[in-house]
Amino acid sequence: AIPLLSVDRLKAYYRLKLFGIDREVRAVDDVTFAIGRNEIYGLAGESSSGKSTLIKTIAGAIRPPLAVETGSVCFNFSDGTRDIYRLTPRELGEIRWKRLSYIMQGSMSVLNPVRRIRHSFTDFALPHVPEKGAAFAERIGRHLERLHLERSVLDAYPHELSGGMRQRVAIALATVCGPEFIIADEPTTALDVIVQKGVLAMLRGIQRELGSSVLFVTHDMAVHANLTDRLGIMYAGRLVEEGRTRDLFRQPLHPYTRHLISSLPQIGDDTPKKGLEGSPPNLAAPPSGCRFHPRCPLAIDICRREAPPMVAVAPGRRVACHVVTASPDAVAPAMEEVR
Ligand code: SF4
Ligand code: MG
Fold first, then answer.
1. Which residues, including other chains, have CB under 8 Å from residue 100's CB and lie 6 or more apart?
2. Would you place residue 338 in the very low, low, confident or very high pLDDT band (cuts 50, 70, 90)?
3. Which of 167, 211, 215, 236 has its CA 20 to 30 A from that of 24?
4. Average pLDDT of 302-326?
5. Which ligand 1 atom lies nearest to the CA of residue 255?
6. For the region Disordered, what residue ranges are annotated (predicted)?
7. Residue 90: which residues within 8 A CB-CB, separation 6 or more?
8. ipTM > 0.90 (yes/no)
9. Nearest to 12 by CA among 48, 50, 42
10. What percent of the chain has pLDDT over 90?
11. 16 CA distance to ligand 1 centroid (A)?
């Protein structure tokens, strides 16, 4: 089947002038991946690994100094294929909310603080659904109830709601038009664990009901373990590993993925976790070769010279690491074992 989203060799850089010198920050550097229908795809990686820039770029929300250098982002919606960089602003506006919805980091940014919630629905959703007047109000009311929200939230101002409520309202707003593709950037990061669970369950419920695909971004690996079907790991602007979430957790292959998973707290294990030495690289001057090499416990000579390509090591599993991909035989049986 043709994937719903295809991202091909995408490069998106920030072009800045610092102290009179032109700098380019390679926030997304040669990323290729695809997302099918009806799946929840997670993007993980520490902050400033390029996750937010990547999804902004996928959503077509690019403003200077961010610019797409090369590559393409293609959606295969039910009413036709769209190459996101060939769309006029008007065409982009037409797919927003109805085909493609973007839940940004911090729900306050989408909810107008000086207007009642009702008006946010009218502003964003009304132009994209067939219902008007009372029928429109009924559509919103039913959708809120489906998401376990009282209809009375429509009369509230954003500041009158708790963080968890606001986030649920933001999800309601993003899904009321029944989008085929939902992009969510750290939607639960500011919430406490109990509220977070509720919001995630709601998102999963609405995804199943609508049959939408979701691209979900968070640095929180525990959230990925509970929510996503497939997972992509980003490090310093590059995708370094991809596979079914279950497989990645059972057997992480890339040294960075192994670090992310081993640093998760385990029940009944009180030993302090060893952190990763060093800090994430400066993307204006990334390390040569494999960008992870200054922090990698397995680094060998070639790692300093050559960037490792993404290689398929098992069905649905890709990894970018010289050491891992040099011995696929060692990797393949181990992969079988975990199934
Ligand atoms: Fe480590 Fe080399 Fe693999 Fe990069 S390519 S993750 S430096 S072993
Ligand atoms: Mg971010």
1. 59, 75, 179, 180, 181, 183
2. very low
3. 215
4. 95
5. 6
6. 263-286
7. none
8. yes
9. 50
10. 64
11. 29
Q: String of b and e for 88-109 (b: at least 16 CB within 10 Å)?
A: eeeebeebbbbbbbbbbebbee
Asked if pLDDT for residue 270 goes beyond 80, the answer is no
User: Going by C-beta distance under 8 Å and a sequence separation of 6 or more, which residues neighbour residue 134?
Assistant: none
Closest CA to 225 of 252, 205, 202: 252
Top-level CATH class of 5-99+179-264+281-338? alpha beta
pLDDT band at 191 (very low <50, low <70, confident <90, very high): confident
Please check whether residue 215 is in contact with residue 41, taking contact to mean a CB–CB distance below 8 angstroms: yes
pTM: predicted TM-score of the whole model, two decimal places: 0.91
Distance CA(235)–CA(35), nearest Å, equals 19
**One-letter identity of residue 203:** L
State which of 234, 303, 310, 325 you would mutate to test the pocket of ligand 1, scoring each by most atoms of that ligand within 8 A of its C-beta: 303
* Helix (H) or strand (E) run with residue 22 in it: strand 21-35
